[in-house]
Amino acid sequence: MKKQIDVKLPYLVKSGTGNYFVEYRCFNPSSDQMERFRIYTGFAKCKSESDIFTHAEKIKNRFKLKLMAGWRPWSDDQYIYKDETEYVHLAAAAGNDRRDSSHIRKYISDYLVFKKSEITPKSYESYVSKSRLFVIWMEKNNHAKLRLGEINNEIVISFFQYLINVRMLDKVTVHKYRQNLHNMFEYFHEKKIISTNPVHHTPKAMKRVDNAARPITDKDMLKYIEYTKVHDLQLLTASFFQLLLFTRPNRELRLMHVQDVDLARQMAYIRDETAKTRSRVITMPTALVELAEHLELSRYPNTYFIFGRGGKPGPDPVGVNYFNRTFSVIKKILGFPDFYKFYSFKHTGAGKLLESGATLAELMSHLGHTNFESTIHYVRRHFGERSQKILDFKPDFLNGLKF
């Protein structure tokens, strides 16, 4: 029987990001496995490789003596936590269970674990990436040893100035950073870990590039339909689902099952596990029901994904980027403008629903919005302030004018 190794003595490590630390491992009887521990202290002050190696030797010798004398790190009052802010590829290579006194990383990791249970994987990735950048910025600016309550508004403002002036992030992206950080510190405030939320009066970025998808014109829509019904019927079907149901493409549409569509009752169901905000029931317009019946969706097993690999319903859904990637290819073939995106079908459908005489309440419900403010903002952004009086406006002196 192979003897269990009790200790792996300290050794110097250089991470993929260029940071140095000393690492050692110990067998923990309570978990019945080897655990990894790291020491980062002092390396940031080293000015040369020679300084790094000298500093590392001191740490290695000190901990080597302690470990050989029987000392184990769990006897110290330090944090043991899963570092959710570590990059995945680095964590896979080195393990992301940290044991150090990093106050910021510890609490942010705790918050991310809390958020993970209530948001979609895509939203969670966004939270992690923004939290990670904040942690890295704090460490590079010598704020890593601050306790949460010591992170004040001045530090937060400096971080946002970095996002705007150095990272050159767009207005929308900076706003998302503000939302995420404010929510995180508000969580700490409610838990009474900090006395006040430092995320306020942050600088705003200007709008650099307008990448918003625009509605598709009737002329281009007919051109698109004629092409895709011959060359890519599945993409055309997905486009109509987007156009008539206003589903969000990445999860709500891509992960929709055959059983989520009730053709007899003209209802489509968005499940909790795929919804961006909440589960909901969407009325299916008759035109979409007729398309689904023509495609004979009901003959496929209930658990099949409507948009499966191979161009038809199947046990595996299309890839995450399938809709956007495939639409981009066809967009170039048809010579469509860059501001047409797969999401344009949702905006096109919303515009047509408004033109049909639907109320804002009906539009809000079909869009899946939770408040009128979101719907009004959506309408203003994509369709402007439309008025029949303005549309019919024509001064008398223009009557009969010819050019």
Structural class designation: mainly alpha
User: How far from one another are the termini?
Assistant: 98 Å
- The percentage helix is 40-55%
Query: Can you tell me the CATH superfamily of the largest domain?
Result: Intergrase catalytic core
Please name the CATH topology of the largest domain.
hpI Integrase, Chain A
Identify the overall geometry: elongated
What's the architecture of the largest domain in CATH terms?
Orthogonal Bundle
Strand content: 5-15%
Low-confidence sequence ranges: 76-81, 87-95, 97-101
Mean pLDDT: 84
Provide a compact summary of the structure.
This protein has 403 residues and is mainly α.
Please give a handful of descriptors for the protein shown.
hpI Integrase, Chain A, 403 residues, 3-stranded antiparallel β-sheet, 3 domains, elongated, DNA polymerase, domain 1, mainly alpha
Could you characterize the architecture of this molecule?
By secondary structure, the chain is mostly helical. The chain folds into three domains: 1-76, no CATH class; 97-209, Orthogonal Bundle (DNA polymerase, domain 1); 218-388, Orthogonal Bundle (hpI Integrase, Chain A), CATH 1.10.443. The protein is 46% helix and 10% strand. It is built from 15 helices and eight strands. The protein has helices at 49-68, 88-94, 103-116, 121-140, 153-165, 171-190, 218-231, 233-245, 249-253, 286-294, 322-334, 344-355, 360-367, 372-383, 388-391; strands at residues 7-14, 20-28, 33-39, 79-82, 97-100, 261-262, 267-270, 280-283. It has a three-stranded antiparallel β-sheet with strand order 1-2-3, covered by helices on one side. A three-stranded antiparallel β-sheet has the order 6-7-8, with no helix packed on it. A two-stranded antiparallel sheet has the order 4-5. A hairpin with a 5-residue loop joins β1 (7-14) and β2 (20-28). α3 packs antiparallel against α4 (121-140), α8 packs antiparallel against α10 and α13 packs across α14. It is elongated, with a radius of gyration of 28 Å.
